[in-house]
Write a structure and sequence with these properties.
This protein is an alpha/beta fold and 466 residues long. It contains 14 helices and 23 strands. α3 packs parallel to α6. Bound molecules: flavin-adenine dinucleotide (FAD) and 1,4-dihydronicotinamide adenine dinucleotide. Flavin-adenine dinucleotide binds next to α1, β2, α2, α3 and β3.
């Protein structure tokens, strides 16, 4: 096998594999080193994809009783959890194999093993099949991703005290699931298990869930999840978990301090954020600068060491697959002498629960803090004919536009299919669009997206259907 490349990418997740493909398309001879058994990183193996497979299946399962209102009745409904897990595993397997195909198609050399950078331009790989290989390249891109953060004194055994990885593969539905952290993972995976029958309680340190989302959306979202039976203990911290091997006793306290209390649970999911993963890369010996675990890069994704670049979860910014992918494309294009670029002001976020939550751009709180004059327009799915026909009328779209120029500054949605619909708002922002542009764009009727148009009309106080 050849040992000399133009570019070595370390990590085969969405950042790394997309970077490798784009660089190969631009004429570089590229190797991608991945230590997992399968390509695709966290996202395909233990993140985006398995969670979405379980969210989809569990949503269908939970939705069936509601179909009786539409005349669809089922005499009996049962859950085959192992079949649901097989569907998830099959989905993951097919997609990770798909990356092997894409590597072949684009002539990227995959190398199975754990990489360590021994010097700029030189990578030592402990091969998964045994032995070592030394690779050299003009440039190295680090795309080693992230790992779950843990709580001091709490041992994640992935059986009873689990991270998202364990929570994606439970062998039975827990009676009581305690979720530590009311962020994206806690609410997505909490929803999965609540729909399948678990009693779910979310313990959140802050006084609100999903930090980062608009506060209007957060309130509506928590109400919707409460209605589905998910319990919340906000402004609360977990101080310890006693694991008897068959059950857990979770000690919680008010976040500000105060009397401790014990909560019983079968399973505890620790979902308090993720931290960049750089173990064993040799960064300290090389003198690569990091800040709170994150690799520091300049606007061209270069670290302080010439020829070493970094992208994705291992650098600053939202830990999202599409952000990692776009950075992968940008760094490949920059290395090829092109003008690679990521517009960080227009990166959408989605929580794939029911209702879905999606947003792009600034929240109202951020605009207020920055003293930006804005106008807000809001339209609710209750007035949308398609939502009504589907029986999914909860939620709304809110558009924030500059008071003077009408340029769209942020779009926030909670409701059916919000995750798909946020693309329209993202595109409008990418083009520097105004609320009026959305309002004057012809939207097919009857579609959920008409609520975006209605919210844009609401910015100018001239709604037509609400
Ligand atoms: P990763 O995907 O983490 O890939 C890094 C790869 O590098 C890993 O495969 C690792 O094995 C490998 N590696 C590390 N060190 C070495 C080494 N020394 N040598 C060789 N290989 C190495 N994001 C979304 O946008 N949408 C979602 O719906 C979504 N859902 C998620 C659900 C869950 C449960 C989790 C945990 C995350 C989710 N994310 C989601 C986040 C998303 O998975 C990450 O943002 C994304 O995977 C980051 O991509 P990356 O390429 O930077 O890193
Ligand atoms: P998160 O940052 O979204 O949420 C963590 C939550 O835990 C926060 O609300 C925080 O206040 C709380 N918390 C922190 N310490 C705590 C403590 N000691 N006790 C109680 N609460 C505590 O992180 P999460 O959910 O772990 O997800 C990690 C990353 O994965 C996110 O950055 C997200 O971007 C990504 N992800 C994205 C998804 C998507 O795009 N749909 C799905 C799942 C994950």
């Amino acid at each position: 096998m050849a040992d000399s490349f133009d570019l070595i990418v370390i990590g085969g997740g969405p950042g790394g594999y997309i970077c490798a493909i784009r660089a190969a398309q631009l004429g570089m001879n590229v190797a991608c080193v991945e230590k997992r058994d399968a390509l695709g990183g966290t996202c395909l193996n233990v993140g985006c994809i398995p969670s979405k497979a379980l969210l989809h299946s569990s949503e269908l399962y939970a939705h069936i009783p509601a179909l009786a209102d539409m005349g669809i009745e089922m005499e009996s409904l049962s859950l085959d959890l192992s079949a649901m897990m097989n569907h998830k595993d099959k989905t993951v397997g097919e997609l990770t194999k798909g990356i092997e195909f894409l590597f072949k198609k684009n002539k990227v050399t995959p190398i199975a093993g754990t990489a360590k950078i021994t010097a700029p331009g030189s990578v030592q790989v402990a091969l998964s099949g045994g032995g070592e290989q030394t690779l050299s390249a003009g440039n190295i891109v680090i795309a080693t991703g992230s790992e779950p953060a843990s709580l001091p004194g709490i041992d994640i055994d992935e059986e009873r005290i689990v991270s998202s990885t364990g929570a994606l593969s439970l062998s039975e539905v827990p009676e009581q699931l305690l979720v530590v952290g009311g962020g994206v993972i806690g609410l997505e995976l909490g929803s999965v298990w609540a729909r399948l029958g678990a009693e779910v309680t979310v313990v959140e340190f802050l006084d609100h869930i999903v930090p980062g989302a608009d506060s209007d959306i957060r309130k509506e979202f928590q109400r919707a999840l409460k209605k589905q039976g998910i319990g919340f203990r906000l402004s609360t911290k977990v101080t310890g978990i006693e694991n008897s091997g068959t059950s857990l006793k979770v000690t919680v306290e008010p976040a500000e301090g105060g009397a401790a209390e014990e909560l019983p649970a079968d399973i505890a999911l620790i979902a308090i954020g993720r931290r960049p993963y750089t173990d064993g890369l040799g960064l300290e010996e090389l003198g690569v600068a990091t800040e709170r675990g994150m690799i520091v890069t300049d606007s061209r994704y270069q670290t302080n060491v010439s020829g070493i670049y970094a992208i994705g979860d291992v650098i600053a910014g939202p830990m999202l697959a599409h952000k990692a992918e776009d950075e992968g494309v940008a760094v490949a294009e920059l290395l090829a002498g092109q003008a690679g670029h990521v517009n960080y002001a227009a990166i959408p976020s989605v929580v794939y629960t029911a209702p879905e939550v999606a947003w792009v751009g600034k929240t109202e709180d951020e605009l207020k803090a920055e003293d930006v004059q804005y106008r807000a327009g809001k339209a609710s799915f209750a007035a949308n004919a398609r939502a009504k026909a589907a029986g999914e009328t909860a939620g709304f779209v809110k558009i924030l536009a500059d008071a003077e120029t009408d340029q769209i500054l942020g779009v926030h949605m909670i409701g059916p299919d919000a995750g798909n619909m946020i693309s329209e708002a993202t595109l409008a922002m990418e083009f520097g669009g105004a609320a009026e542009d959305l309002a004057r764009t012809c939207h097919a009727h009857p579609t959920l997206a008409e609520t975006i148009k209605e919210a844009a009309l609401a910015v100018a106080k001239r709604t037509l259907n609400s």
